[in-house]
Specification:
The protein is mostly helical. It has helices at residues 2-26, 42-67, 69-78, 88-96, 103-106, 110-138, 163-201, 203-212, 218-223, 227-252, 260-292, 298-311, 334-345, 353-368, 370-405; strands at 293-296, 326-329.
Length: 406
């Protein structure tokens, strides 16, 4: 009995010590202000995190896209009608560097840098906004993010009484999952398509073409030529980066193999798959732009002939000269673009291994590493950002309270 009494006494003592330590830890420290944590309103905290992630993605996108400009120009030429026949990759490289090794960077102006930042920041901001807004509207969970990807997948529901509820929830979740990347990808193209077209044509040529196009409305002119395939491509890649990659990684990747490194390479692999589909829209975008702008020599030849006849000169006097070429702009007919492309090059007009490879070379460094950067790198700075906001919010809140008291 004495042993039991001693054990009881020791346990009570340990319990008292533990309680005292917990109470001391709960008290704010005068020498350590970080312990006095200011609780931010939920909406404010969510807004700060969305803004932080968007700025981070935008900065990441600018750096990676500028560094990869030669790869982008190669991919643009590969997926246009300017290269045909054999050795298309070699033709694209020649066109890319025809004005020097630095020529791909010369088409990048301040507008492109801003557009890149807006493109990626808007993509991140838009997806987070639409994902959270639609999740709240439908009463479903948002897509997995950050440390959630490293956790085991949720167990399947076992209660048969909730089958109807689970089916309704799944339908709402699927609708939300479909709508979020469509809205985000379309908004991204609204911001970025015009700058992409400018890098494809060049500023002077784009201005000439746009002055002759018959725009249906101001919105179409703002979005720029070939907006539809550009938006479809971005919807596909948004799905790949923010929906398919995190969901498949969390649900189906072996739990014991999950790590930052495996997520990086898994994202790269999923990017290859996404680009196999997106390349068809990239090719349609390039061919649509070529359709919108073509060189017509008919008018120029007629004008030259009329002039020479009026001057009484023989046609042989200009026989060795090339007539001047005239740039003609026309509105895009996607049915005509697809029909003429298939007649000329078959399925290779929209998909070949070299086209796919060039698109991956351009896209994989930034888009393939985006899920890793978004889910593993950005979360590292979230607490620091929130700490700064808490400090500012606490100071401002304290000043307001002091004013009220005085």
């Amino acid at each position: 009995m004495e042993e039991s009494s001693d054990e009881t006494t020791i346990s009570a003592t340990e319990y008292a010590a533990t309680a005292a330590a917990a109470a001391a830890a709960a008290q704010p420290s005068a020498t350590s202000p970080s312990r006095d944590v200011v609780k931010l309103p939920t909406e404010l905290q969510n807004s700060i995190l969305v803004a932080y992630r968007s700025v981070g993605i935008g900065t990441f996108g600018v750096i990676m896209r500028f560094a990869g400009m030669p790869l982008e120009k190669i991919a643009l030429f590969m997926n246009s009608s300017q290269v045909t026949g054999k050795n298309q990759f070699g033709q694209s490289i020649k066109l890319t560097f025809q004005n020097g090794l630095l020529s791909p960077y010369r088409v990048v102006g301040p507008a492109s840098l801003v557009a890149w930042f807006m493109q990626y920041s808007v993509m991140g901001l838009a997806f987070q906004f639409f994902d959270h807004a639609l999740s709240k509207a439908f009463g479903v969970a948002p897509v997995y993010y950050g440390d959630e990807l490293m956790e085991p997948p949720p167990p399947p529901p076992s209660n048969k009484n909730h089958d109807k509820h689970d089916a309704t929830y799944q339908i709402k979740s699927i609708i939300k999952t479909i709508l979020a990347p469509i809205l985000a990808g379309s908004l991204e193209s609204t911001v970025a398509n015009r700058a992409e077209v400018q890098r494809y044509y060049g500023p002077t040529k784009l201005a000439t073409i746009e002055s002759h196009l018959q725009w249906k409305n101001a919105a179409a002119k703002f979005c720029g030529p070939a907006f539809l395939p550009n938006a479809m491509r971005n919807v596909i890649m948004c799905n790949t980066s923010f929906i398919i990659t995190p969901i498949t990684y969390k649900m189906y990747f072996p739990q014991e193999e999950k790590s930052q490194g495996s997520l990086f390479w898994f994202g790269m692999g999923m990017n290859f798959v996404g680009n196999a589909v997106a390349i068809t829209q990239q090719a349609l975008w390039g061919r649509a732009l070529d359709y919108a702008s073509y060189t017509d020599t008919t008018t120029a030849v007629a004008a030259t002939t009329t002039t020479t006849n009026a001057a009484g000169s023989s046609s042989s006097s200009i026989g060795g000269q090339q007539p001047p070429q005239q740039l003609v702009a026309r509105n895009i007919s996607y049915s005509q673009v697809i029909k003429s492309s298939l007649q000329k090059d078959g399925i290779a007009a929209f998909f070949t291994v070299p086209k796919w490879a060039s698109r991956i070379l351009m896209n994989a460094p930034v888009q393939g590493s985006l899920p890793w950067f978004y889910n593993n790198v950005l979360p590292l700075g979230e607490e620091s950002v929130l700490g700064v906001v808490r400090t500012l919010y606490g100071d401002d809140h304290g000043k307001k309270n002091n004013c009220t008291i005085s």
